[in-house]
Task: structure prediction
Amino acid sequence: MLATHEATLDMMQLKLADMEDRSRRCNVRITGLAEGVEGSNAIQFLTHSLPKWFPSLSNLKGELMRAHRIYSDDRKKQVGATRTLIFNVLRYTTRQDILHAAKKAPLTIDGRKIRFSPDYSSYTVKRRQAFSRAMDTARAKGVEFFLLYPATLKVKGVGQVKTFHSPGHAEDFIVSLPGVQDAPTGGDGDPRPGRSSDGE
Result:
């Protein structure tokens, strides 16, 4: 009986997280921007700056709906830490264009690495972060992988592709694979590097 109730609660939590993720699907998070750089009008700042940072985003006029910093307890902030800037766009395709542009051309401003990411619910974020150790292991071994939405790790081994919902099982599989220096190379003689994806 208890197991049945726990399974039901887990299912409800997944459904709630999915609903929250869908409500945020047109949001983008930016971390690393210096405090106050956006001035008093964050939308105007982003409308001007995004095409400058990423030339492929040349037609954003009217696409940005709202933007603000996420407030936090100043007493818990680390020295030099900045609050996340979150903004909403009119279309999901625009969000994808922004994320793809940022991934293709990583941005650094005044020595700060600026990161663009989807705005997921805290539940989904925790599930995705649970794969961090497995992904670090994959990167170290040169194993190619994709972190799929909401929290599934797709790993390309030697002649095989597997998906994992369990971080532990994913790490065990990655550890069992040969390192990139031992793996067969592709037709051009280059080994396949590890990489990740935030795609939904």
Q: What stands out?
A: The two ends are 35 Å apart (CA to CA).
